[in-house]
Amino acid sequence: MTRSNVKLFLLVFSFVSIVSCDSNRVFDSYKSVPNKWHKDSIVSFKINPPDSTNAYNLFVNLRNTNSYKYNNLFLIVEMAFPHGKTIKDTLEYKMAEPSGKLLGTGLTDVKENKLWYKEQVVFNEAGEYTVNIQHAMRENGKVNGVVELEGVTDVGFRVEKINNN
């Protein structure tokens, strides 16, 4: 095997290993946000859970760049059930250390954050669920919200099996 073949093999093996380690994923999708996330822009996801007996953990996933200038993030997350019931939550997440260094994973200037939404959720209604996510950012001392939030590039939603090991 030549040196370049060995490198290629290791690269492919590493990729397959990383992808296969995500066996808890049931649903995982991202939607891009145009240049700035407008306060009235709602990012929606349609989910068809695999069963109505097992419990799942739910996450909001977010990718942001260094142009995100806040140390926290407020989101309004709404889940619409198949038979009409709706749950709406206002959530706050820490996005940066006190020093201003952004939290999240990633080696480039894009950071990925996996933010808890709900634990131990049982999808007890058959059919399609809709999850709507919008930002609700405010600046200190100002009544009106931030109209266009800079630095958020993608918003995602994830449903995971609960690992009972």
Automatic annotation (TrEMBL):
Organism: Flaviramulus multivorans
Keyword annotations of the record: Lipoprotein
Alphabetized PROSITE patterns for the sequence: PROKAR_LIPOPROTEIN
Pfam families documented for this protein: GldH_lipo
Protein name, per record: Gliding motility lipoprotein GldH
